[in-house]
Automatic annotation (TrEMBL):
The active site is at E389. GO terms for molecular function: metal ion binding; metallopeptidase activity. Pfam families: ADAMTS_CR_2 (PF17771), Reprolysin (PF01421). This is Peptidase M12B domain-containing protein. It comes from Batillaria attramentaria. The keyword Cell inner membrane does not apply. Keywords: Disulfide bond, Glycoprotein, Hydrolase, Metal-binding, Metalloprotease, Protease, Signal, Zinc. Residues 1-33 form the signal peptide. Residues 216-445 form the Peptidase M12B domain.
Length: 853
């Protein structure tokens, strides 16, 4: 049946793309030279089983091309899915030919071979197929008594079409990945305020219940080129060459283990797919010399700022090397990471800057095309590009390229750069529906065959040189400053201050100082696990609470800015010379640790004198302007509790009496100045006694001298009970107050609005809302780490069956349904009410911000 054979031919095309590049070209194109030649086809041997459908194990084809005789000796591939009963796949490695063979019956019941495929001859590539003949036409053939086709075979005519020259690198994925350096300039001495906005969460799409998914494993071999190795070698703190080399190798392996752990999370987060994709780093190969890094060193072009490498040439070289070398371990995909600036020839002979390049739909191919190249700036900035290029290998096109998606949504497979909005802020960590559809079609097609199932269903054993970092966070190993230094050198650092947003903004907008400029900071993305608040870190672009995250002062998450801060001075020196600079928000933003050492709970005189040169003699004149400017020297200031404020439905005096540790919170300290002043001890690091008065009182002095399991001191935590005096630190290392008690709570948007939250407690996972309705959310918390407010997405989790395999894979998102209990219907029913409350809250908060200005 010709229609059936056509359907199988599509499968043959897909299956055999790994034989040779030319095997991809089974669909004829118009405009090529065409000629009809004579030839003879003869089968050799007897079919081995009924599934062979009468096709012999070997096939000889003699053709006359340009007055030359070409003899092709085809061997049948036995590793072919038996579901293709009327189609056989044959190859002649020597002549670079790959064909599909079927048998057709004429009206007399006699079978004839039908051939279709590609072949090489004298450097040319031809498509070849039988001439369509009249089914009643006579054909010459002869069979012996054993039904074997004899060497005489069957005379046939073939149509040859000569290919035009084409570039094997002409893949749609060779486009610039979504990446841009967004920059800001650091603010001078000035007060900058930024109104806080509440993000109104949108209702998540319904997730279809899917009980069972098929695990597929993508084993990637990562190759670090010589530039990457040199960068890590130069950063080594060791003294001897051998030690520096060893440390560099260990750090590189750990670094890429973190990179692929992050990529794996991006792919595992896909839920609308009958497959669970696991991306595994199976081996890391490091080029420790230029000669061992031929793929980039052979194409390296010296540039004043950053040496460049043509990505087309490098990827082609890598592909050829992978096809012929015996040095590579088994792999499903090879990814080359380069420390050079990748370029690609563009129109007019100029050069485009790109950050990655990959072949499309080549995953699992064994001809070297299952490969990509990624530019690695360091600081984990390559993670998004690597996930993007691997997506191309899984057949995904760019969003908006002949599909219904758009790159403006900023998903992983977006092309180019698009503006960030609240709606698309987290999309760079997610795949679009179009990408997921590409993945589904590709994987479904691949696993129809033995080779595809072997590649995707069987996970390779990782090389021992790949460290296990699944329980570690790269953002804790390399803090924000260290991540910036990896990209911009040892003089770089995180840019601090109100002009760079709130601490939680670092998860999507981490600004790093470029020391080659005077005051310019460029935007990067923080690594997973980067601290962004007290017991909070970055995960998937969000600042989320985690019990394993470090306890930090919410007012000084990143500490003092290292290096020069203002006037060619570092923070400790600058603030020590005149603490009054801390009245400026920009100074507190960069030097929060140093300013904290001078903070005094005296309203309007928190940092002492506002002017330099104050003297007690001037205080005696009693001039208000002088007293206000020299409030520290003149001991002038108002330290009273704000009578309009209630916290946890308590007055300041009642709150501080119930928990003196509340005064460690700068906001409470300001509102309740007088009450906090009464209990102020004057002891640095223990200004208001125990950090958790009820806990410390319960433990008593019997635990003094002991340590917690994380190594921290009980005495420091219960400094009042244990009469502990923290050691005095040198001025160059500011003292930070780590608040481990819950921040004092007050419902800032009104009890009636926050009351609605109690009907849908999961919205308390929103950090901003949790702050606005702090008292309510604290009351609703079940104190289960990571599941304090039940399911994060109760509507989606409602369709899951507790205890199912799929449910066990979503214990984080559906911690309540898939965890200990299975309640939460009230949360789901009230989501829409809370959305209205949040919208009202946004208006109220905007009004408050305007009034404060």
């Amino acid at each position: 049946d010709r229609h059936e054979m056509g359907k199988h031919a599509v499968s043959f095309h897909s299956y055999w793309r790994g034989i040779t590049t030319t095997a991809l070209l089974l669909i004829f194109r118009c405009g090529w030279a065409e000629e009809v030649v004579h030839g003879r086809v003869s089968g050799v041997g007897t079919p081995s089983s009924e599934t062979d459908s009468g096709l012999p194990p070997s096939l000889n084809v003699n053709l006359s091309i340009a007055a030359d005789d070409l003899q092709l000796n085809f061997t049948k591939d036995t590793d072919i899915d038996p579901d293709l009963p009327v189609f056989g796949l044959y190859q002649d490695i020597k002549n670079g030919a790959a064909v599909g063979i079927s048998q057709e019956m004429d009206q007399n019941g006699t079978s004839h071979f039908h051939l279709e495929g590609v072949l090489h001859s004298k450097g040319k590539v031809y498509d070849v197929r039988n001439v369509q003949q009249n089914p009643n036409a006579e054909r010459r053939h002869r069979r012996d008594v054993s039904d074997n086709v004899t060497s005489d075979g069957e005379d046939q005519e073939f149509v040859l079409k000569l290919h035009e020259d084409f570039s094997p690198d002409n893949f749609d994925s060779i486009r610039k990945p979504p990446f841009i350096l967004k920059k800001k300039t650091m603010a001078p001495f000035r007060n900058i305020t930024r109104p806080l906005a509440v993000q109104v969460p949108t209702a998540p799409p319904l997730r279809h219940k899917r009980e069972v998914t098929q695990d597929v494993y993508i084993d990637v071999v990562a190759i670090a080129d010589y530039a990457v190795y040199v960068d890590w070698y130069d950063r080594s703190t060791k003294t001897t060459q051998s030690e520096k080399k060893q440390e560099a190798l260990e750090n590189i392996r750990q670094y890429y283990a973190f990179v692929f752990n992050g990529i794996n999370l991006m792919y595992k987060s896909i839920v609308r797919l009958p497959y669970t994709i696991h991306v595994k780093l199976s081996s890391v190969i490091v080029s420790t010399s230029g000669s061992a890094s031929q793929w980039t060193e052979n194409y390296r072009v010296t540039s004043p700022q950053w040496d460049e490498v043509d990505a087309n040439s490098a990827l082609s070289d890598l592909s050829n090397w992978a096809r012929t070398t015996d040095l590579l371990p088994a792999y499903d995909h090879i990814m080359l990471f380069s420390g050079y600036d990748l370029t690609r020839p563009a129109n007019g002979g100029t050069s485009d800057k790109i950050t990655g390049l990959a072949y499309t739909a080549t995953l699992c191919d064994t001809n070297g095309k299952a490969s990509s190249i990624v530019e690695d700036l360091g600081g984990f900035q390559c993670m998004s590009t690597a996930a993007h290029e691997l997506g191309h290998s899984l057949s995904a096109e760019h969003d908006g390229s002949e599909n219904s998606c758009t790159s403006t949504d900023r998903y992983i497979m977006a092309a180019g750069t698009n503006p960030e909005t609240e709606a698309n802020k987290l999309n760079p960590w997610l795949f679009s529906p179009c990408s997921i559809n590409y993945f589904n079609n590709f994987l479904t097609d691949e696993v129809r065959y033995n080779r595809g199932r072997t590649c995707l269903y069987q996970s390779l054993t990782a090389n021992p040189n790949v460290p296990d970092v699944t329980s570690e966070m790269p953002g804790q190993l390399y803090d924000a400053d260290a991540q910036c230094r990896q990209v911009y050198g040892p003089e770089s650092r995180l840019c601090r201050g109100p002009e760079f947003g709130q601490p939680e903004d670092v998860c999507t907008d981490m600004y790093c100082y470029d020391p080659t400029t005077s005051s310019t900071c460029f935007m990067l993305v923080a690594a997973r696990g980067t601290s962004c608040g007290n017991k909070k870190w970055c995960d998937g672009g969000q600042c989320v609470y985690n019990s394993a995250a470090p306890a930090l002062n919410e007012n000084c998450v990143f500490g003092d800015q290292p290096g020069i801060a203002f006037s060619e001075q570092d923070c400790p020196t600058f603030v020590d010379n005149f603490p009054g600079y801390c009245y400026q928000e920009v100074v507190r933003g960069r030097c929060c640790g140093s300013c904290a050492r001078y903070y005094n709970p005296v309203q309007n005189c928190e940092y002492g004198d506002r002017a330099a040169g104050c003297s007690s003699f001037g205080c005696s004149r009693g001039e208000t302007s002088y007293l206000e400017s020299c409030c520290g020297t003149c001991n002038y200031g108002t330290c009273v509790d704000d009578p309009t404020i209630t916290i946890n439905q308590q007055s300041c005096s009642a709150l501080v009496s119930s928990g003196p540790e509340y005064c460690y919170n700068e906001r409470v300290n300001s509102y309740c100045c007088a009450s906090c002043r009464l209990i102020y001890t004057g002891v640095t690091g223990c200004e208001f006694g125990d950090y958790n008065s009820s806990y410390c009182a319960g433990e008593g002095t019997s635990s003094c001298g002991l340590f917690f399991t994380d190594g921290s001191s009980f005495d420091a935590y219960c400094c009042g009970t244990c009469e502990y005096i923290p050691p005095t630190l040198p001025p160059s290392t500011p003292t930070f107050v780590a608040t481990t008690t819950e921040e004092a709570c007050v419902d800032d948007i009104g009890n009636s609005a926050c009351a609605q939250v109690s009907r849908a407690r999961h919205v308390c996972y929103n950090a901003t809302l949790a702050s606005l309705c702090c008292a309510t959310c604290s009351r609703l918390s079940n104190n289960r780490p990571g599941c304090e407010f039940g399911d994060i997405s109760p509507t989606e989790c409602a369709v899951l069956t507790p205890g199912s395999d799929y449910c066990r894979n979503l214990t984080s998102q559906c911690c309540q349904t898939c965890g200990v209990d299975a309640t939460g219907a009230q949360d789901r029913a009230s989501s829409s009410i809370v959305m209205v409350v949040l919208a009202v809250s946004t208006v109220i908060l905007s009004f408050k911000s305007f009034r404060a200005l």
